[in-house]
Design a protein that fits this description.
Radius of gyration: 18 Å
Largest sheet: 9 strands, antiparallel
Strand order of the largest sheet: 6-5-4-3-11-10-9-8-7
Distance between the termini: 50 Å
Helix content: under 10%
Number of strands: 11
Structural class: mainly beta
Number of helices: 1
Strand content: over 45%
Shape: globular
Length: 146
């Protein structure tokens, strides 16, 4: 039986040291991410589409923003990290990465919930323009078009 800690509210939680004992080096499953995710709001001014591809056990995430003349290819996310829902998880459920543009840095985070990708971007201007940083939360669904 593991060791439990009690927080200031009297709630017991498993001690992280017990949960973090080395396990077989199993990569988190990525299959739930695979495919093209389309924003549920076709009129979004932000993140319009996310393509997730798996090759050689590696997840690649390519994002597209909404533009006046069509989609704007942001490229592949840099510094991509995959997260499970718990320390003992076997399947990936959350991702984070970043995009760097000449005038803007975007931190990208997403998780899967009930067949929906909930994506958040945190955007910070780096061009000295004085524009405020901003965030956007988007809901994307898996494109099932043939």
């Amino acid at each position: 039986m593991g060791t439990y800690l009690t927080n200031e509210h009297g709630v017991e939680a498993a001690h992280l040291a017990d949960l973090a004992e080395p396990r077989d080096q199993v990569e988190l499953g990525l299959s739930e991410f695979a495919g093209t995710w389309i924003n549920a709001d076709a009129a979004t001014p932000g993140l319009a589409k996310v393509e997730c591809a798996i090759a050689d056990g590696r997840l690649a995430v390519r994002a597209f923003g909404a533009g006046e003349d069509g989609l704007l290819d942001w490229g592949e996310a840099q510094d991509l990290e995959i997260y499970g829902t718990t320390i003992a998880a076997n399947e990936g459920n959350g991702i984070s990465g970043r995009y760097v543009f000449p005038h803007l840095e975007t931190a990208f985070q997403a998780n899967l919930k009930g067949g929906v990708m909930v994506a958040v971007t945190y955007n910070r201007f780096t061009d000295g323009s004085g524009r405020r940083p901003y965030f956007m939360r988007e809901f994307l669904t898996l494109d099932v078009a043939p």
